[in-house]
Amino acid sequence: MALNFMDLLGSVIQGTTASSPAASSRMSNAGSSLQGLLESLMGAGQSMKQRVGGDNLAAGGIGALLGALMGGSNSTTMNSLGGSMMGLLGMMAYKALSGSMSGSSGVTSQPQYTPPTPKQQNSDAEIILTAMIDAAKADGQVDSDELNRIMGTMKSSGIGQEGMNYVIGKLQGPMETAKIVAAVNGRPDLAAQVYSASLMAIDVDTEAEKVYLDKLAKAMGLSPAVVRNIEQLTGMKA
């Protein structure tokens, strides 16, 4: 049976934010700054919704993500949380690539997106999860207490042993930058999501982490202007 990476992503996000107030704050701030944009997109017609996967965003609900990060309802499922995170990242990618923030992103036309199929969304969630785990390993160490909290969250949320073994293997395995870069090839929207998720996953407080994020952005083909847009959205600077 194929792994459900939406569930895994949601569980890791919940475990990470529970153990890191700074990570929770970054995600909450980013989500809050995009709520107005989400509302405007939902009222702008089907063509605009299709650009950024509006239907999936409405179904997952950025509000569900923010609620979970702020200690909301326990009824929020891991799949819903993962879907909400993907929706948030999709909105951030759209805003960063379209240059809708102050200043130009260097993109001369509006980015065009199509709503992902469930299979594609699950595949994208795997890449996002890989990117977040790689970012956590960028300084050469993974905090054991944080790892235990993440594993505890995964277990309590019903993630099976196969899923837990997958995450543990990723955390203990080598960096997978080449896999990430190959996956985002020809998809600037996914590249922007990967960089956003990487920034939100860690406290960028070591030189190794800064160097890693800089190399990742360049390898994925993100322009300095788009990187600055993403950093403004997350409130973090690599």
Task: Summarize this entry quickly.
With 238 residues, the protein is mainly α.
Describe this structure in words.
With 238 residues, the chain is an all-alpha fold. The chain has one domain (5-234). The chain is 72% helix and 0% strand.
Which term fits the overall shape?
A: globular
Low-confidence stretches: 41-62, 69-75, 100-108
Radius of gyration: 16 Å
Strand content: under 5%
Write the layout of secondary structure elements.
Elements: H1 5-19, H2 21-42, H3 46-52, H4 54-60, H5 62-69, H6 78-98, H7 118-137, H8 144-156, H9 161-172, H10 177-184, H11 188-201, H12 207-219, H13 224-234
Helix pairs in contact: 1-2, 1-6, 1-7, 1-8, 2-5, 4-6, 5-6, 6-11, 6-13, 7-10, 7-11, 10-11, 11-13
List keywords for this structure.
238 residues; mainly alpha; 13 helices
